[in-house]
Design a protein that fits this description.
Elements lengths: L2 H33 L5 H22 L11 H27 L2 H8 L2 H13 L5 H5 L1 H13 L6 H24 L9 H23 L3 H11 L3 H25 L2 H23 L5 H23 L2
Helix pairs in contact: 1-3, 1-11, 1-12, 2-3, 2-9, 2-11, 3-8, 3-9, 4-12, 5-8, 7-13, 11-12, 12-13
GO molecular function, one term: antiporter activity
Keywords: Membrane, Transmembrane, Transmembrane helix
Membrane topology: Multi-pass membrane protein
Length: 308
């Protein structure tokens, strides 16, 4: 086999693993939080972050997937801690929303991330885009409004948590660009995850014990009741790390634009798979709204590329 074919096969394998990890962790989150009676989104996020901390350390320090980047100062560590707290908020909010909303609608709301990113970039860095680029965000927002009206399983609290998680995710990406912008402080996403994850665990552990006080008793009981409970939790947490690792590797071996295109398609694939698995009802209005949002995201990405 030629080197070009080997490279193409390697990239295809990476993309398949990236899709599997991202969609898998989303579906397992929904299964655990809604169908298994494991109603502890904060503790679940802590499990994810614990796996990310351990596997990041093994990947970077032992397997040397990427070179280890050292935190050089206390101010840099404080910036990383700030990002970690915002990241925790986005993941916990997303997991809470999955208790109340179908995966399909969760993905529709999550697709509005570019809208919030553009808003925060404008407010925090005064970065201006071309008017055509902002115009492309209109169908992104309108599509979610339409999808909300046509969603049979709409839940206001779940919707608020999902929007908050989406906004926090966008805020984190803009904040990361501001806080770690100098050459001496830049970290690649895998090293950033290495330092963010333990901080996230330290934040989430007391939060879980205070806000989910019976989590250990209920988890042990569910573990006795459902023989695959622990396996699902372990697989789910490992997939959370795999999603981050493959995200980094796909970007490294292709391009950010390719990742963006694949991400748009991933949301649609996740919606279709979740509908087949969880049998949640969908309406024509809901599908039309989600489709409009995805098309808006695609148009936004294309406008940014052309008018930068």
């Amino acid at each position: 086999m030629s080197s070009s074919k080997k490279q193409a096969l390697f990239i295809a394998s990476l993309i398949i693993l990236w899709y599997s990890s991202n969609i898998g962790v989303l579906l397992l989150n929904k299964l655990l939080l809604s169908n298994y009676g494991f109603r502890f989104p904060i503790f679940l996020t802590m499990c994810h972050m614990s796996a990310c901390a351990i596997l990041s350390y093994l990947s970077i320090v032992f397997f040397k997937i990427v070179p280890l980047q050292v935190v050089k100062s206390k101010p840099q560590l404080l910036k990383i801690a700030t990002l970690s707290v915002v990241f925790c908020g986005s993941v916990v909010g997303g997991n809470i929303s999955l208790r109340y909303l179908p995966v399909s609608f969760n993905q529709a709301v999550g697709a509005t991330t570019p809208f919030f990113t553009a808003v925060f970039a404008y407010l925090m860095t005064f970065k201006r885009e071309a008017w055509v680029t902002y115009g492309a965000l209109v169908p992104v927002v309108v599509g979610v409004i339409i999808a909300s009206g046509g969603e049979p399983g709409f839940h206001l609290f779940g919707f608020i948590m999902c929007i908050s998680a989406t906004a926090a995710r966008a805020f984190k990406s803009v904040l990361q660009g501001i806080l770690l912008s100098s050459e001496g402080e830049k970290l690649n996403s895998m090293n950033l995850l290495l330092y963010m994850s333990p901080i996230a665990v330290l934040v989430l552990l007391p939060a879980a014990l205070v806000m989910e006080p019976n989590v250990l008793d209920v988890t042990l009981e569910l573990g006795r009741k459902h023989k695959y409970m622990w396996l699902l939790l372990l697989l789910n947490s490992t997939m959370a790390y795999s999603a981050n690792l493959t995200n980094f590797l796909v970007t490294k071996h292709t391009s950010p634009l390719t990742l963006q295109v694949l991400g748009n398609a991933k949301g649609a694939v996740a919606v279709v798979i979740s509908i087949f698995i969880f049998r949640n009802p969908v309406t024509f209005v809901g599908i039309a709204g989600y489709s409009m949002t995805v098309l808006g995201v695609v148009a936004y990405g294309e406008a940014k590329r052309r008018f930068r």
